[in-house]
Design brief:
The protein is of the alpha+beta class. The chain is built from five helices and eleven strands, in the order E-E-H-H-H-E-E-H-H-E-E-E-E-E-E-E.
Length: 165
């Protein structure tokens, strides 16, 4: 993965949607598919899923970050989960301003809009994170647990391997 562009040492390209989705996209681009299995993962609420994700990045814990990511209506497991974790480690290693990453340990989410088994957390509902890390985040409930919904969107002219979230 190419290091993210920076502005005054701050990562512009490493954002929660891009970060989570890019790693899931990496698994999809290599021909792997996510499959669901029993066990842990996800979070009790959309807010906790996003906080878990940010805190895990701040702690440089790719396994914890990937545990709250889903794609294609399934949580990550097996090889796609391994690819997510390896990809996240590469991204974390490439970030020039590690101080911004550490600040993510204090991230807080103040609300979510839930409609059935989907939810959206607006950027304004994400606090205590460095500039550039607030983005709208879509989530999905799978088997009663909430996951960041990493998906690929080709309606804006991007390639199928250019993920959005």
């Amino acid at each position: 993965m190419t290091p993210s562009p920076t502005t005054r040492g701050r990562p512009r390209g490493l954002r929660v949607r891009v970060g989570a989705a890019a790693l899931v996209g990496l698994a999809a681009a290599t021909g792997l598919s996510a499959c669901s299995s029993g066990g842990g993962g996800g979070a009790a609420t959309p807010q906790v899923a996003v906080e878990t994700f940010f805190h895990a990045i701040g702690d440089k814990d790719p396994a914890a970050a990937c545990s709250v990511v889903s794609t294609g209506g399934a949580r990550l497991s097996g090889t796609p989960l391994d690819q997510c974790e390896l990809g996240f480690q590469k991204v974390l290693d490439s970030v020039q301003d590690q101080g911004d990453i550490a600040l993510l340990k204090g991230a807080a989410v103040t609300g979510a809009t839930v409609t059935g088994d989907t939810a959206t957390i607006k950027s304004a509902q994400i606090t205590k994170v460095p500039d550039g890390f607030q983005n709208d985040i879509d989530l999905v409930r799978l088997d009663g647990r909430w996951y960041i919904d990493s998906k690929t969107d080709t309606t804006d002219g991007t390639s199928p391997s250019t993920p959005t979230g």
